[in-house]
Amino acid sequence: MKTCLITGGAGNIACQLSFTLAERFDRIVLFDVAEQPIGAIGAKARFERGDVADESQLAEMFQRHQPQAVIHLAALLSASCEADRARAWRVNAHGSYLLLETALRFACPMVVFTSTVASYGGMLPQVLADDTPQWPEGLYGVTKVAGERLGNYFHRRHGLDFRCVRLPITISRFAPLGAASALASHAFISAVREKRFSFPSFPETPLALIYVEDVLRAIDGLVGADSQALTRRVYNLQGMTATAEEIAESIRRRLPDVELRFDPEPAVAKLLASWPGAIDDSAARRDWGWRAAYDLEATADDFIRRLKNDPVR
Description:
The chain has eleven helices and 14 strands. By secondary structure, the chain is α/β, with parallel strands linked by helices. It folds into two domains: 3-168 and 211-236, NAD(P)-binding Rossmann-like Domain (Rossmann fold, 3-Layer(aba) Sandwich), CATH 3.40.50.720; 170-209 and 239-309, UDP-galactose 4-epimerase, domain 1 (Alpha-Beta Complex). The mean pLDDT is 94.
């Protein structure tokens, strides 16, 4: 039986991947410390509780399920990392090390890791390249760089088929509250549910974005890619570039009665303005045929439709 193990299995992306990956795997095991998944899971999926930073629990999972692939999504996000640095390092960094070590021990053929543009920092170019120096300013980004470097080490020294995508700002229904990176998501969510939104950014700030449906497609595409065609182990992704004003206009065209305004918060606006407005994902396009399917207009159509049909508040 061909099995895929997904850590961080209670989260939004993991739950959706349990449907997306159903054609590739006979069984999908969602592994997380949470009590239950945040949403519905596919018919081929099962949820099991456990801690990615517990070596014995990981070994038991690999021994019992013998996965052919692991999608490693388990991580504390930015605010949680800063609130509890010790726990963040244990889960994000040590947990990633244990996962890679266990995958090697049980001869798991593939590990796919999700990283982030938060792994960069400082003065960045407007178009971010795969090999732009990474000097993250937050602990979340630091742990993601650690995961990338560990994966490259296990690949080069021990032959583990490690694959990674760095995600830009993701537009998703489950974007974290209070995070600067969640601005685009909450603009849509608040517009549909509250009929208003105040942008904490400057209108002209360009943002590199990706819709969650493209994230699912990208992970599925990387899982299915021919290893011999991969010229690198870590790939940047780009979905679209849009200014905050363009996001607002896309919402107004679909929801003309919504109240949208700009009220820049200095710290948030400065942070967003420091991020790259575009990402060079030509290596992913060349090596495994990555192409974003959703531009801003397609994202707005699909996301607003889903939010209107979603009874959860």
